[in-house]
Amino acid sequence: MTKKVLLYLRNSADTLHTACADSQRYYAETFIRKNGWKLELTCRDEDIGEVVFTAQPGIHKLLEEVDIGSIDIVLCHTLDRLCSRFAVAERLLHELEAKGIEVWAADPGVRIKAADLIDHYYNNPDGTLARGRRRSPMPDDLYEAEHLVPLPYGYRYTGAHNADGTYIFGFRVLEHETAAVVLRIFQMYADGMSPAKIADALNAQGIPGPHGRMWRDATIRGGRDRRTGILNDEIYIGRSWVPGREYDFAPALRIVGDELWRRVKLRQDFACRRAAASP
């Protein structure tokens, strides 16, 4: 039977010592194919510490899947991307092993067992994982856009530099031309224009939609409950999500102000009430 894998990614600002999430995904998916496994689900957290380990949205989802029994393997890039403290790792691995779930690290491609955890840490078990472990370099083709996780319309990948001039890959920033289109869509909808008419207006002006496609009603309208569509993606007010839970707030990525967002939500509420009242 093909083993089902939950891939856990933890992003990091310290890409000098830790692979970024896209690098982690690249190596993990290669490792999954090599072993003939099936990628069932991907969970991701930002590297904001482990003060409350299980409260992190990605970990919360991981533990839900463990309880459901939907996976056979938890795969991370390196152990510190799953959890960096010995006590946390020991408890987690014991719980997973009790349920028959294996934990693997794609780099360097080994299974991690609770009995062997001490080998992954410094002499102080209360401390964090040893730094300076071997890490695979970022593959060159990850610099090509088609190998990256697609970003919402209005954003692009870029790089930044440390104080010493070292390039850091994988930052996302506003793409000002398309960000202006996003703001315009919100304003047009708040002023009473329907998503279908907004799409027609943008297409008539030759403005490319997401991924270079034509604009469609559904692209703009989406689904409010699922947070899909331009009008429902909370990244535009600086929030990032994993399924069902907020995990990050990035004011620098905000395109839409609170007042405009509120006007759009009020109009959506009105449209829902009017649709419900229709015979």
Write up what this structure looks like:
- The chain is of the alpha/beta class.
- It is built from eight helices and nine strands.
- The chain has two domains: 134 residues, 3-Layer(aba) Sandwich (Rossmann fold), CATH 3.40.50; 104 residues, Hect, E3 ligase catalytic domain fold (Alpha-Beta Complex).
- Strands 2-1-3-4-5 form a five-stranded mixed beta sheet, with helices on both faces. Strands 6-7 form a two-stranded antiparallel ribbon. The protein has a two-stranded antiparallel ribbon with strand order 8-9.
- α5 packs across α8.
- The relative contact order is 0.11.
Give start-end ranges of low-pLDDT stretches: 123-128, 130-147, 242-247
Portion of residues in helices? 25-40%
Strand residue content? 15-25%
Shape, per Cα inertia axes: elongated
Name of the CATH superfamily of the largest domain:
Resolvase, N-terminal catalytic domain
CATH A-level architecture of the largest domain? 3-Layer(aba) Sandwich
| Through-space gap between termini | 51 Å
Number of helices: 8
The biggest beta sheet reads: 5 strands, mixed
What integer is the average pLDDT? 80
What topology, given as strand order, has the largest sheet?
Answer: 2-1-3-4-5
Q: Measured on Cα atoms, how large is the radius of gyration?
A: 22 Å
SSE arrangement, N to C: EHEHEHHEEEEHHHEEH
CATH C-level class of the largest domain: Alpha Beta
Please identify the oligomeric state. Answer: single chain
